[in-house]
Every structure is written in structure tokens, then in C-alpha cells.
Amino acid sequence: MELRQAVGSLMVVGLNGAELTGLERAWLSVVRPAGIILFRRNIENALQCRALLDAATTLAAPAALRCVDLEGGSVDRLRDALAPMPSAQAVARAMRKKNKPNLATEHGTLVARAVRSFGFNTTLAPVLDLGLNVSAQVMGSRTAGETPEEVAEYTGAFVAALTAAGVVGCGKHFPGLGGGTLDSHLATPSIERSFRTLWQQDLAPYRSLRNVLPMVMISHAAYPLTGGKSTPTSVSRYWIESVLRKRIGYKGLVFSDDLEMGGILNAMSMEEAAVESIRAGMDLIEICHSPELILRAFEALLHEGERSRAFRTLLLARATHTQRLRSKIIPKSKSKNAQQPEALAARIRAFAAKIEALQPAEDSAA
């Protein structure tokens, strides 16, 4: 594998609009990324979305990830083009209060069908963060429970449903944002929880699901009590290699949160973030919007690989490893029998109505 090819195959990138522009075709041909991620700005309907993904991934690396954020609730990139999906919190509460464990499976199945119907093969869900009071304003309805057991029960069934339907899931945000008070889109959360607390609580869902999660997303939070440093996790070899890979034993793809976020760029430049995240053990770096920043990251990795023999060796090895894992987890054939959007939208609305009716009385009253 050539160095330029290796660098691009470690990147997942975003696009600006609903159609691929000439400029985007040009830089995609240069970068040849490992995947494409789309947002509401890119999605009008299923036919248009599939065409955009087909055009973009033709210029990407083999076994390209076609990513979307579809958790349900506040993070649902298909809500305008399809139907609003219930949140993880609402489904998990109904599941627990009414003793209906199959609801998490139904939720995951509907998310997978929505993802496939628009041409995606990957959803960056579920959230494994604990729903603690301190982070309630930041996390909202994205969390499935307050305890590790509640989170693992919902997310385990959700991920199993995604996998059964041929969709790649991604557990996030390692090692856990439940103790944070800041939004990492804007700033670096400093989470002062001891390693013992993190291991017993925040990391417990990752430990229980380590063999079933195809991907894990790394957050930009810092944990000063774990070694006295305030380094964002996304550039921390300690968290990625020592804790996630070695101590927990995770063997899947390790995926960064968006490197355009303030949680990392307030601490360092895009060039530093790209190089240091790969050096720390990241498999895939995600840059969701700016072509300038995408190309700056690409050139920084390429330059460092040309300058340093050790980093070049790392890039080539990481690219080979990452491509092998992508080929393993991505379904071999495209979904030609995806459910029609109109029928799927009706099913989602019916499921949402059922979840609303099953909400505990105190939640409904509030």
C-alpha cells in the first residue's frame, strides 16, 4: 500500500451539500477516504441520499463506511426526510418500567432499516454514556440509563439488532461523558472521576460489550485524575492503547469523534490533532465539514509519514489493519430490498406512539 493511500484510508469525511460538487470530486480523488459521513444538510430523500453516497464512495477506499448519526431523539439526521425516531432514553425507560425488553431490539431494528433505506451501512450509535445528573443538560435524552446495568441492557440488544440487520454500530463516547458538564462540540470537558469509579461505572458497558461492538468512538474529554493529565482522550495513548485495547481487550475499530470540535481544536491545531490521534492508537479520524481542514489533516499525516520512518511504518500497519476490519464488518452486498421510505416512516411513527404511551406516568406528567 502506498503512503498516500494509507493516509486517506484512515479518514472519514463529510460533504457540504445534497449533491457532489466538482471541488469535492477533486479532493475526494486525492484523499480516497475510508468513509463518508452525511448530515441533515446532505439529505433530502432516500433516492437522492443513495445517489450522493454512491457518487462519493466511488472515489473512496475499498469497503467504505457510509456513516450517519441516527441514535433517535435529538440526534436523528433522517427525521426530516423520514420520520422522527424515539430517543434511547424514552425507549429504555419504557423497556424497564413496563418490563418489555424487546423494545430495545425493535428500536435497533427500525434504526437499521432506516439507515439501510437511505443507503448507509453504519450508524454512529448507540450512546454508552451514563445518564448522570451532572451531565443531564449536555446529554439530554441520548442516554439509556443512570447505571451501567441499565445502559448495557439497552445497548446490548440495540447493537445485536443492528448487526442482525446488516448495519455497523458504534459505541460512544469512550471512556464516558456521564460525569461531564461541558459540550465537547465547544470545549474540552474535564471529568474528575477516579479510574476506579470509571472502571466500575462508565467503562462497564464497554467491558460487557467489547466482543460485539464493531466500532468504539473516542471522546475529546479529559480525565485529570487518571494520571494527573488533562489531555483529550482522542490523543491519549494511555486511554486508547492501555485501557481500551489492552485492559478491556477491545479488538474492533477505534473511531474519533469529529476533529473539528472545540473539545480538541481548543487544545491543538488540526495538524497536531490528526497526527497525535493516529500516534495514540486511533484507527479512523473523523472530520465532518471543512474541506480545508480535511486536506490539512491529510497533508499533515502524509508529511509526518515522509519525515519519520517510524510514523510511516505506523501509518502503513494501521491502514492494513483498518482496511481488514472494515472489510470484515461491512455487509458484502448492498441492500437492494430496503423497505420503502413511506412504509418505514409509518412504522417509525407507530413505534414512537407506542413508546409515548408506555412512558411512566411521572415522565408523561412532566
Terminal-residue CA separation: 57 Å
**Percentage of β-strand residues:** 5-15%
Largest beta sheet: strand ordering:
6-3-2-1-10-9-8-7
Largest sheet: 8 strands, parallel
What does this structure look like?
The longest helix has 21 residues, at 309-329. This protein has helices at residues 3-8, 22-31, 46-58, 88-97, 102-117, 136-139, 148-164, 195-202, 204-208, 237-247, 262-265, 270-280, 291-307, 309-329, 341-358, 361-365, and strands spanning 11-14, 35-38, 65-68, 70-72, 75-76, 122-123, 170-174, 215-218, 253-258, 284-287. The chain is globular and about 60 Å long. Helix 4 packs antiparallel against helix 5, helix 5 (102-117) packs antiparallel against helix 15 (341-358) and helix 13 crosses helix 14 (309-329). The strands form two sheets. An eight-stranded parallel beta sheet has the order 6-3-2-1-10-9-8-7. It contains 16 helices and ten strands. With 366 residues, it is α/β, with parallel strands linked by helices. The N and C termini lie far apart (57 Å).
